[in-house]
Request: fold
Amino acid sequence: MVYDVAMAAGFDRGRHLRARDVDAWMAAAREYLPGAGGLVLDLGAGTGRFSAALADATGATVIACEPSEAMRTVFRANWPAIPLVAGTAQAAPFPDGVFDAVWASQVIHHVDPAAFAASVRRVLRPGGQVLLRGGFGPPSALPLYRYFPQAWAIGTAGTLSLPAIRAALAAHGVILCGHAKVEQVLAESRDEFIERVRTRSLSNLAGLADAAFQNGLRAMEQHAREGGMPARIVERLDLVAFRSG
Reply:
């Protein structure tokens, strides 16, 4: 997925998380993260949604890595004090064995899992942690699936399963050590939900044909008008922790 200027400009609006939801993610992750003096890699950092939160929650130094120039431009405007480098998740541009933890939010479905596993294993210290945030359960459990099932069609990146991820990391000596579900508010109202979707900042939606996206958007709008959509949209995503051998 290539995040161009248009997607980067709409990313924060479409993917914004409220402070209480960021806090919930940090609370779930805290036991796997280093404290002050540690070093954390925010891999595929995007516009920096979690970079500052990781630093605030731990006292560790956070370095962000993001492949998209457009996303890095927004990141620097948001968080000018956080170190940011250009690079990919499958070839992280860092020396061997330097990080205590790697945080990767909604990243692994964009890359080859085996290349990702080799990359994070290389940059982690022995015993270092990998934290993956994403939706790794049945796509039908996600609020958007009802309107855009084609975005999670069999064989698409969004259907990458946890067993497949687990096997890819285990082959490189990075072993599952924890799994939690974290609830977050996707939207506080139907209108907010629809406006977020209009940004098309979720990669699954950006990859759809325009006609499929517009059909799904119209279905959302109709469902909202009919009162069938919940007034508050909540989703539960996965936080999966792995330890490097």
